[in-house]
Amino acid sequence: MVRSYDEVDERILDATLGRILQVGIRRSSLDDIARRAGVTRVTIYRRFSGKDDLIEATLSREIGRVLGEATTIATTTSGIDAQIEETVLYILRLTRTHPLVTQLLAVAPDEALGFYTVRGEEMVSQGIEYITAVLETGQEQGVLHRYDPRPVAEMIARMAHSLLLTPVAGVDFGDEDAARAFIRTAIVPLMKYGFGPGPGGRAHGTSAGNGRVGSGS
Description:
By secondary structure, the chain is an all-alpha fold. It has ten helices and no strands. Helix 6 packs across helix 7 (109-118). InterPro entries: Homeodomain-like_sf, HTH-type_TetR-like_transc_reg, HTH_TetR, Tet_transcr_reg_TetR-rel_C_sf. Pfam families: TetR_N. Keywords: DNA-binding.
């Protein structure tokens, strides 16, 4: 469940993010964060159970922001194929260029791998829930075929996380043309039709159209 934050919470989370980007996670003390936020350590403990919870909340909020922007892209792009292409491209691009990736690697490279593996569960879980909701909405609108959306959502969320850890292997996702080609040939069909035809082939589901997919939330 997504947590809601008031103005003080947001200041604390902003201060946490700023400090992490400045010195890394281990060197980001609650005293430093409290000073940046203009609050006391006691206030932080009242709102977050401790540093680990604060880091998790900061990461979760950033993921939420990325997914929110992805929803905006999806709802302002015409045609289901283009919606999938543009939103997936945006998310995959952010897995390489978000400051929590680039800046953390710059200031604390020894922490980066541990951060995105140990805390990867939160990232993947949020991604699965978001993508599942998007796919369910598309199915309800009749622009995606009917299939179980969760395995597809998990595959895509795990792929994005894998790209975060290994950005270049077969496909160079830093090359936008290559990334778009991969999305068009692999991700668009996967999201439209699932992993394969069920009994009777693809005709068993709702035919895909040219509508617009929302977040389902």
